[in-house]
Amino acid sequence: VADRVYFGGTEEPWTPHQWEVAVGTLREAHRLSVAQGAEFLVVYVPRKFRVYREFLAISPGASIAAWTINDLPQALGDWCAQNGMSFVDTTPRLREVAARGEHPYFVDDVHWNALGHATAAAVVIDFLRSARMFPFASDNGLERRADVAPAVRQSTAQGREVLGTGSGVSR
Asked: Of 8, 89, 131, 141, which is least surrounded by CB within 10 A?
């Protein structure tokens, strides 16, 4: 991983108001989807620090040493299960990518890069297949290929970010 990475900020516990707004929005989106005969899937997109934290060498006394991780993925997953909604968390697969020394997020930004998007898409496709939520008989061009990740790494290296140990941004 790069020597310096921008994380944005820590995760605070959600307030009751934030939780009610979020679940109220999800309830309504679910209701509208079902009314149209559509499937509904909640996909958890983790903050960058949640993905990278176990791979960081944090200097003693650094402010980031006090940052916390909330229980949002677990709480949201439990709530979705209790309310009959499908849920998938992209965190574990994004951590696998970071564990290999690759960056699923831009180094100087809190957003996914092409590798992060490809990783999350693979998680969602795997879930849709396993839950039989999408007609994958012919995969409609969504077939996962073993050569996707190298192509993504190459395109991001030529574009905005160079991946791997000691990587940085080449904007």
From this structure: 141
